[in-house]
Write a structure and sequence with these properties.
Helix content is 16%, strand content 25%. The chain is globular and about 35 Å long. The protein contains two helices and five strands, in the order E-H-E-E-E-H-E. The protein is an alpha+beta fold. A hairpin with a 6-residue loop joins strand 2 and strand 3. The strands form two sheets. Strands 4-1-5 form a three-stranded antiparallel sheet, covered by helices on one side. The protein has a two-stranded antiparallel sheet with strand order 2-3.
Length: 79
């Protein structure tokens, strides 16, 4: 990915998540599996019941997070 030097907003559609954890392979310090329902989220939204989140990804970890989104077989992430 070519970096723009700016943070990026990624939309997470948790209702599509199948809990496989493939996204964790590249960005295990950003994504977490919710203990409530076994679906992907971030620490910021760990207790949220909302199924769609918009998360801001800092430029420092953007490449690994974007790559992790590409690993998802359920199309949970919208870049």
């Amino acid at each position: 990915m070519i970096s723009t030097g700016k943070p990026k907003v990624i939309t997470v559609h948790r209702n599509r998540c199948i809990g496989c954890g493939y996204c964790l392979s590249e960005a295990h310090n950003f994504w977490v599996i919710s203990p409530n329902d076994g679906k992907i989220t971030t620490m910021e939204f760990i207790n949220s019941k909302e199924q769609t989140h918009k998360v801001m990804v800092s430029i420092e970890i953007l490449d690994s997070v974007v790559e992790s989104c590409g690993n998802c077989p359920a199309n949970v992430f919208k870049l």
